[in-house]
Predict the structure.
Amino acid sequence: MPIDAHLVPILRAATARIVPTDDLPGAAELRATEFILGFPEYADSYNAGLAKLPADFDLSTPDAQDSALSQLSSDDPHFFDLLRRQTIEAVLAQPSALWDAMGFVVTA
Amino acid sequence: MTGNVRLTQVARRWDAIIIGSGAGGGVVAWSLAFQGMEVLVIERGHHVPFSPPDRDHLRNHRLTQYGHNVGPSLDDRRGMTTGDDPTSATWHSPLEWQYNNNAMGVGGGTSVYGAQAWRFKPEDFRMASIYGVPEGSSLADWPISYADLEPHYIEMERELGVAGGRGGTQTWPMPPTAPTVKGQRLAAAAGRLGWDTQAVPLAVNSVPYNDRPACVNCQHCVGFACPVDAKNGSQNTFLPRAMETGNVTLITDAQVVHIESAGEKVTGVRVVQRGKSMVIPTDRVIVAAGAIETARLLLVSQIGNQNDQVGRNLQGHYYASAAGITPESVYDGVGPGPSVATTRWSHGNDGIIGGGMLADDFVLLPIIYAKRALPPHAPTWGDEWKNFVRDNYRRTLQVMGPIQDIPSPTSRVLVSPTETDAVGMPRVVLSGTAHPESVRAQTFLLGKAKQWLAEAGAEQIWGSPSGQYLSAGQHQAGTCRMGEDPRTSVVDPSGKIHGYANIWVADTSVHVTNGGFNPFLTAMATAIRTSSLIS
């Protein structure tokens, strides 16, 4: 079972707050949602966990989204950690301008 | 090296069969080939490509988040329990590093290791004599001394190729690998503290050596195959040299599931390759499958376990690991990374049994930094996390090192009576936990790591002792301990299994204690010594 299509916009919005975009790419540009969709074994966890965010989460303001994610991290720390962990993996395990800004340069 | 040998092509009688092509197996193949024996090396894994480089940051032997690059298949589950009953096990993925970081491929772990090529210290072979035997432990002296192994260490350093320059009383065949900003800063700090330091000896070509090029100082050393083949392991030294004699055949993707025996003699091994099974006869067997797989195979084959010793004394390495943040960048990205170490705290520590070595770390991949090297107070998500990561990656200084694990007879490898793997071989169940003295030594060494970081100018320093857990996630050793007395050991001082005429163990399984150092060079030195005693 994949992640429900109606939850994908919420996933996209949530990952974009976990690693926001500023002068450097964030979860959106680095395709964290697509990375997470590549793990069908976690889809049940995502379906259950994302359903705990407000139904209009993806349409809310960034501040309201951050409040909802903080609430989720205390209500369901296990799921929040999965979401956080995979978002960060998507962002940092591939070459990007974020690597450049950190100073990690692959020379060979 | 060819990798497409099939079972039917090796169906003949061999002078010797070697099970496993890692640190021990390659060395033994090389030695026996030059003694003129016809040798078959059987490897469960396959060849590891080093070009084009495999650079998946989430599937490698440094971070096994979703897979290994050189490792057991994801369905190769491990049982974990605490007592002697394997049916009470819970089952775990091989990706859980705490339980099993086994490599599986030609060269074993040496194709992707960090290659820290330490000799054990003379005291490491005499732990029980120096410290006594703590309650609940099976701490013992080795039946051989450092002096017995020293010529073999020297031979292995030369034949494998180790870079280390000069340090203490040693001189290595190659100068040290490149110094780093972190290493120079830590060396200066150690000097102010009055601690001796040395370059970290690495089985990496600091200059061209053995017809292969020098290290290009890339950032993907530990956990990955080398992109220019400058990291020295079984797969590019002993194995190919053994095969060049024409006396050695390597068969890959083939698993030994049973050793056949009659009385005190082994007669052959049963091998499974791509669904086909065959018994291959041999005059000698050398088991070099690593401390967990070697014990498993002997238990399944009911060889050497007359006194219930096979699989006991399983030990890996507890690590002391501390980090701090420096006011300015200490990052230069020059790999491999470990460039300075101190063995000042290996022994002679009041109230502590043993101790350990401390060194700086490999170049940290960004995702490993985010998972393992952020301070406890760091933000965990959002803009604050992102700013923290970009501002502090280059200012993070880490020091770490393995301690002398104190062995326990209750830390052990068992086999399941009910669960089998894909080829029908009983699965491994690991049992036990670390001895409390290991935790004490780790806590002690952690204090020294923090002291070093503080002297080096780190301003926020963190690192906690581990809880008590089975120390078997890396550097596994001890499960077929060497000794004079068959009641308390599995192999005799030559490496031959007690009570048998023609089977030897040549890997870290025979280590009585595992040193406060990365153990592969000691495994190689012990294996080449054993090879010289095989007749």
Remarks:
- The two ends of chain B are 27 Å apart (CA to CA).
- Chain B has a mean pLDDT of 95.
- The interface with chain A takes residues 56-58, 65, 216-220, 227-228, 329, 331, 333, 365-367, 369-371, 380-383, 385-386, 389-390, 393-394 of chain B (CB under 8 Å).
- Residues 7-533 of chain B form a domain with the FAD/NAD(P)-binding domain fold (CATH 3.50.50.60).
